[in-house]
């Protein structure tokens, strides 16, 4: 076959590869999900397996998922995981009690040795934020902060299209900003009164347990089994008109607004994107009003709070997009 004039084989190979998809993997507490991504969009079925226990089993699970895709048409693999990740080495360098034993895992090194293609490992909220900030409506904004509400609270700060990582890869660990005094609630990170001890799933449950103290079953059916109450029960009861549940949900919105207000006064973002499993229970108008009421006018009045555009796909898309963008930026 004749070569195009002026292009050597390496360049032809690179140009061909720049159109290849990357595989995005979202490692969550419940499932590990994978799909191929091109141009910030998922282009295949999403494959999933339940998240196994323990570091070695998780790595095995990731490899099993990757084997369902044709490796030689992929430019690389991107992995979104909870925890603080060194983006150069792909090692997990910090983790709360939500993922015990995960810190210290040299994930990129282990996977690249087995796969022979590039692997990028990224914090889950950073990956989600990277994808959300690239959608058409947001890609020209100065600062977009994505907040994931789930088992924990994660954050991804994107300024002028670039992820802000901080001095030691931990920028955006917004779940651990302090929103109360007096050591009221212990966070899974070991600190007290972190935002996620109020705003993530476990926090909503603790708020419910506090507010339901002394409440009878006749006043609210939620009082029946307070020790084992779930977030689903609370939000469902609120939707069904239970006044106590609505009070809990309202208090949760206040907690969420406190964290957003703190971030807003440091970064003055154009917009917050709220994603993660709990985000579908957010009343966005109420939250926007709360944030505006608690902020300096210059800060609060201009902030838009948006529901995620990519929903559960943001981690997969963002992780994969990192691999494609890294490939393009290193293309000679
Ligand atoms: C925690 C922390 C973050 C993560 C966030 C959301 C760990 C294991 N997790 O604050 O790194 O981004 O939770 O995590 O250190 P998720 O599990 O709710 O997606
Ligand atoms: Zn914490």
Please characterize this protein's 3D structure:
This protein is 36% helix and 19% strand. With 332 residues, the protein is of the alpha/beta class. The protein folds into 2 domains: 9-130 and 313-329, Nucleotidyltransferase, domain 5; 138-308, ATPase, nucleotide binding domain (Nucleotidyltransferase, domain 5). Strands 1, 2, 3, 4, 5 and 8 form a 6-stranded mixed β-sheet that branches. It is globular and about 75 Å long. The chain starts with 8 loop residues before the first helix and ends with a helix. The mean pLDDT is 94. The structure holds 2-acetamido-2-deoxy-6-O-phosphono-alpha-D-mannopyranose (BMX) and zinc ion. Residues 176, 187, 189, 191, 194 line the site of zinc ion.
SSE blueprint:
Blueprint: H1 9-17, E1 22-27, E2 31-38, E3 41-42, E4 47-50, H2 55-66, E5 77-81, E6 84-86, E7 91-94, H3 107-115, E8 119-123, H4 124-132, E9 143-149, E10 153-159, E11 162-163, H5 196-199, H6 201-211, H7 231-239, H8 243-267, E12 271-275, H9 284-293, H10 297-300, E13 304-307, H11 314-330
Parallel strand pairs: 1-5, 5-8, 9-12, 12-13
Antiparallel strand pairs: 1-2, 2-3, 2-4, 6-7, 9-10, 10-11
Helix pairs in contact: 4-11, 6-8, 7-8, 8-9
Zinc ion binds at residues 176, 187, 189, 191, 194.
């Amino acid at each position: 076959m004749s070569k195009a004039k002026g292009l050597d084989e390496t360049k032809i190979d690179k140009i061909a590869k720049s159109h290849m998809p990357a595989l995005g993997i979202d490692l969550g507490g419940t499932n590990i999900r994978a799909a191929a991504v091109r141009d910030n969009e998922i282009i295949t079925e999403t494959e999933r397996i339940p998240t196994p226990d323990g570091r070695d089993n998780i790595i095995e699970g990731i490899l099993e998922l990757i084997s369902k895709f044709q490796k030689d048409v992929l430019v690389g693999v991107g992995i979104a995981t909870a925890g603080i990740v060194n983006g150069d080495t792909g090692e997990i360098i910090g983790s709360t009690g939500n993922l015990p034993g995960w810190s210290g895992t040299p994930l990129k090194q282990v996977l690249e040795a087995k796969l022979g293609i590039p692997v990028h490992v990224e914090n889950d909220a950073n990956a989600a934020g990277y994808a959300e900030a690239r959608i058409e409506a947001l890609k020209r904004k100065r600062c977009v902060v994505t907040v994931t509400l789930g088992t924990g609270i994660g954050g991804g700060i994107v300024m002028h299209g670039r992820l802000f990582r901080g001095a030691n890869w931990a920028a955006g660990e917004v779940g651990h900003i302090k929103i109360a005094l007096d050591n009221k609630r212990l966070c899974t990170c070991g600190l007290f009164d972190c935002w996620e001890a109020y705003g993530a799933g476990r926090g909503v449950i603790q708020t419910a347990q506090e507010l339901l103290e002394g409440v009878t079953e006749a006043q609210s059916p939620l009082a029946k089994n307070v020790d084992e109450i779930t977030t689903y029960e609370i939000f469902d009861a609120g939707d069904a008109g239970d006044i106590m549940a609505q009070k809990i949900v309202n208090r949760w919105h206040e907690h969420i607004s406190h964290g957003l207000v703190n971030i807003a006064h440091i970064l003055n973002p154009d917009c917050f994107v709220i994603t993660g499993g709990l985000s579908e229970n957010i009343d966005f108008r109420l939250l926007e009003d709360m944030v505006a009421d608690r902020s300096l006018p210059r800060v609060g009045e201009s902030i838009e709070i948006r529901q995620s555009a990519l929903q559960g796909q943001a981690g997969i898309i963002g992780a994969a997009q990192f691999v494609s963008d890294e490939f393009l930026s290193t293309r000679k």
